[in-house]
Amino acid sequence: MTQQFSPPAIPVTQLDAHLTVSGFAIIDAESAPTWLDVTPAALDAFQSFWHDLPSDAYLKDGGNYRRRRHSCFVVTGGEVVQVPHRPHWQPVEYNALHGGMERLFEPMQADAVATPAFQALLKAGAAAADALRGAQPWYVEAHQFRIDTSDGIGRPTPEGAHRDGVDLVMVALVGRAGVKGGESRVFEANAPHGQRFTMMVPWTTLLLDDARMIHETTPIQPEGDMGWRDTLVLTFRANAFQGADAVSR
């Protein structure tokens, strides 16, 4: 049996410093309400929006294990503005499997966007990005993911270990049930150092300096008939969203 490692969480007060020095930081589930300034009930209410995600029709490995929604925002200080719905695009340099293609997913539901928990997560991520790169507008892509084991195995990162071509990546575990695996792996892009851990408790949240760190999550397998793993992934990018006509960096 593979040994399971707990996430190396840090106090909320050390988030900005740890992210700057180490290239990543983890907030544990117990600290999340304080960090976000929301109630546990507000987080529970947001969690319910993962039960109605459409299938991802773009998986090139032929799988049917991923469901998702995607919406985009600009966050400046404490102000959140949702932009008109647009495709998700990544260059092949960052996503060898699905890069170079426009993928238009169903948008997040309006009620989900309006929840206090989601608004708080956007603002907390923008504040971390401000501390890392300087205060400015952040172009944010929000992805709701459900990876299930309907195919016998589910792949949270079918593209493998990767960067996203942004400034900050934030991965929040929303829930998991009936699965084993799903180990998060974070490595320095230009050094051999890394960490591996498994996020088990909802609202454990990983933040990454995308310029410095490579990340991946190992496949999940069912413990019984079928299981699933839900996450919210937020990416924060300076200057503009990624697009087919944008210059990769």
Compile the SSE list and pairings:
Layout: H1 15-22, E1 24-27, H2 32-36, H3 40-47, E2 66-76, E3 79-82, H4 110-113, H5 116-133, E4 138-148, E5 168-177, E6 179-181, E7 183-188, E8 194-198, E9 205-209, E10 213-217, E11 220-222, E12 228-238
Antiparallel strand pairs: 1-9, 2-3, 2-4, 4-12, 5-9, 5-12, 6-11, 7-8, 7-10
What does this 3D model show about the protein?
The termini are far apart. The model has no long low-confidence stretch (mean pLDDT 91). The chain is an alpha+beta fold and 249 residues long. The protein has a single domain (12-56, 64-238), classed as q2cbj1_9rhob like domain (Jelly Rolls), CATH 2.60.120.620. The chain has a 7-stranded antiparallel beta sheet, with helices on one face. It has a 3-stranded antiparallel beta sheet with strand order 8-7-10, with no helix packed on it. The chain is 17% helix and 31% strand. The longest helix is centred in the middle third of the chain and has 18 residues, at 116-133. The chain contains 5 helices and 12 strands.
Protein traits:
globular; 7-stranded antiparallel β-sheet; 3-stranded antiparallel β-sheet; 12 strands; Jelly Rolls; alpha+beta; about 250 residues
CATH topology: Jelly Rolls
Proportion of residues in extended strands: 25-35%
**What oligomeric assembly is this protein in?**
single chain
User: By CATH's scheme, which homologous superfamily applies?
Assistant: q2cbj1_9rhob like domain
What's the total helix number? 5
* E-strand count: 12
Tell me the radius of gyration: 17 Å
Query: Approximately how much helix is present in the residues?
Result: 10-25%
**CATH architectural category:** Sandwich
Q: What class do helices, strands and sheet pairing give?
A: alpha+beta
